[in-house]
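Session log. Operator J.P. requested a structure for one protein chain; no other inputs attached. Running the standard single-chain path with token output.
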Amino acid sequence: MDWQAVKVLFCDVDGVLTDGGLYFGPEGQLFKRFNVLDGLGLRRLASVGVKVIFISGDDTAIVPARARRLDVTEVYTCCEDKATVVRQTLERIELRAEQACFIGDDVLDVPGMREVEFPVAPPNAHPLALQAACYVTRRPGGHGAVREICDLIQGLPWPDN
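Structure written below.
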């Protein structure tokens, strides 16, 4: 696979940037755990001109807050039709499917994954997402899966790749 052809990374959040767990405080506060390896990978990817887009079914303020910390400027939340978002975004930014990667972990991500040349899933993904993926990361979601893809796109080595 020619990872260096990727110019845009569509990234699901829950189960990809997080481990999929939800933490609740006694007053109903919601918390999610993110991995710093992924964060640095996304920042480095953006610094070399690869556009990073978060696309999530989540409706909390956590996703936009994480995006702001990473200087990710395009975020779609409450998104159930990820395929349309991918198609419209590629058209708007004048890129082709051959220049796009989508990393997702659940059935809601599969239509979006089918719109790109580089569909990716972490190993802890739903079986349908694993079937749609052309690459399964070695690291699970929330534990460096996104960093693995960021490094591959930048041409940095990962074991067995």
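Operator note: The longest strand covers residues 51-55.
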